[in-house]
Amino acid sequence: MPKTTATRRTMTAAARAAAKRAERGHRETTPEPTVAGRTVLIDAPKNGWQDPPEPSPEAFEEDEAPEARPTPGRRRRLLTVLLGTLLVAALAAAAVLGWRSWDAHRTETARTEALAAAQKAAPVVLSYDYRHLDKDFAKARAYLTGDFRDEYAKTTKTVVGPTARKYRGVVKATIAAPAAGGAPAASVVSASPDEVVVLLFVNQVTESTQVSGQRVDLNRVRVTMSGTDDGWKVSAVDAL
Question: Which CATH number fits domain 98-239: 3.30.450.40, 1.10.357.10, 3.10.450.230, 1.50.10.10?
Answer without folding.
Answer: 3.10.450.230
